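Continuing the batch. This is chain 6 of the set; chains 1 through 5 are on the previous pages. Same settings as before, nothing changed between runs. Recording input and output for traceability.
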Amino acid sequence: MDEYQATIVRIVDADTAIVQISLGFRLYQEMPLRLFGINAPEIRGPSRPAGLAAKAFVESVLPVGATVRVRTYKDAKEKYGRYLADVYYGDGVLLTYLNQELVEKGLAIPYLESK
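Output for chain 6:
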């Protein structure tokens, strides 16, 4: 696993975010991340109300510009090319594991992707 500091650029839905990852040496790369191990309701189709509620929660805890810690799985991408990641946020001393929080709040369900 690799760990990076990143800044939220955009929340696509509750389990997908666009982030700007700090690679060190003042190098940054913008990339899409898929939260590993969970599946949130879609924001289109019949699950739209639940999907929008889950997305709104993520946007409330991770507004644009928020700093997060990202743990990626070495070279692991899912079928749409997004890197699989665990996302942590907080004040630096006590971090909240977003993937788990979404499941605990009933906004997502556990889902095992292949790495």
